[in-house]
Amino acid sequence: MDADYLPFHPNPSKPAFKAPAGAVDAHCHVFGPADKFPYHPKRKYTPCDASKEQLFALRDHLGFSRNVIVQASCHGTDNAALLDALRTAGDLARGVAVVDPYITDEELARMHEAGVRGVRFNFVKRLVDSTPREVFLNIAARIKKLGWHIVVYFEAPDLADLIPFLKQLDTVIVVDHMGRPDVTKGVEHEDFQRFVNLLAENTNIWTKVSCPERLTQQAPDYSDVVPYMRMLVEKFPDRVLWGTDWPHPNMTSHVPDDGQLVDVIPEIAPTAELQQALLVDNPTRLYWS
Questions:
Q1: Quick check: 266 and 230 in contact, CB under 8 A?
Q2: Which of 14, 44, 92, 241 could form a disulfide with 26 if both were Cys (CB 3.0 to 4.6 A apart)?
Q3: Which residue range(s) make up the domain with 242?
Q4: What is the structure's pLDDT at 192?
Q5: Among the options 25, 49, 176, 245, which is catalytic?
Q6: What's the pTM value of the predicted model, to 2 decimals?
Q7: Which Pfam families match (predicted)?
């Protein structure tokens, strides 16, 4: 791994919050192991290995039932590690792939059989090289036939430019990590309200209320991010997902404790009804129906 890379927490705490039966960690990754699933030669970072066995052990430790495993940029469009994890998990996991524009229909069908239900479009420039939007639109048209959705990852300063493109995607869109708002500006700032308005005006757009550890300015206290997460949960209770982001690639401020991240959930979804929607009903509808 890179010399400055922070490995995931070796012994996360047991959360005080008890997740409802059937709860889904809807954003996590597997990395390698590199000797079996090599990292992409043009990757922007080299992580520590984070195996399927370690992910599933964490799932059980945190009191969750299922995972949605998202292909990370360090593996490029080689989804072998993701597909291996999905086949091991069976019905307890679903996947989001990153695909090459020249992928065959047969390959897409095999991915669907393994449990893939979406593709990820990454617009974070420090993580990936830019891709022409026409390429993404062509992929979107192909995966729509399978009933898949699109996961998009971008940072708040890029949202205004992306809105016309997002409106061209004629399927369900899930935005990673609330579009990464700058939490020093406050929830009423026009930047975050632009994102809120996007969801209000486009009922096909969902979001993950995840990664307070990436957004906070006061780690490991995530209270500065809670108002953003809670606003989205309360405004769009049927279009929000939650995930750990384990194994937390490219963290620089601290190594997050996954048990502590789970204990943020009742602060952002304070009622049993909101928790049920966030952790069970919404991900089940999107990934298992």
A1: no
A2: 241
A3: 24-287
A4: 97
A5: 245
A6: 0.97
A7: Amidohydro_2
